[in-house]
Amino acid sequence: MTVPARRPKTRWLAPLVPAVAVGLAACGSVGVSGSAVAVTSPSASPASASPETSQAQPASGAETLQGALERWVTQILQEQYTEACLSGAPLLPAGQDAETLCRKPAALASAKSLREAWAKPGVKLPPEGKVEVAGVTAQGNEVTVPDTAVKLDGRTLHSLELIGATGDTGSFSLTFKMEKHEGAWYVQGFDLEL
Prior knowledge:
Blueprint: H1 13-27, H2 65-77, H3 81-86, H4 98-102, H5 105-118, E1 131-133, E2 142-146, E3 150-152, E4 155-156, H6 157-161, E5 173-181, E6 184-193
Antiparallel strand pairs: 1-3, 2-5, 3-4, 5-6
């Protein structure tokens, strides 16, 4: 009996693909298959926020692309989905409201799918498990970072994403699009290739 070749299957791929496709409009990405989400800076002073702004308002980005991506992945893993999405506000085109875009169900579904792909049994999550980005250098204001360059608790995000996968997973990849805007780095979106 011949069994036809199967596409890779993971518990999270099914919900991630439609969420990513719909997530474009939800977070205002200019990319094809990601949601514009960036990172808030823990060094941003709460005193600098005006009284009219809510606590969920975006702060400045990170000094380095590694810091921006590490913080954003940590936010996703700690289920701070709205904060991760809202922090991308500096990258949105003029006239788009980050709070409205980030409240859309697709934005939340996309972030939850990513967390499900990375939060595997036996893997320590932040703050106990550390997120690290290594081997990436900025060559301008836009950089693409592969999931193999990001580690959680000593394991690459790519290896975590493939736990439970069957079939040919050779073409599967997740890359993060980083952008420098007004001197700070943000996660602009992500691309999923199957």
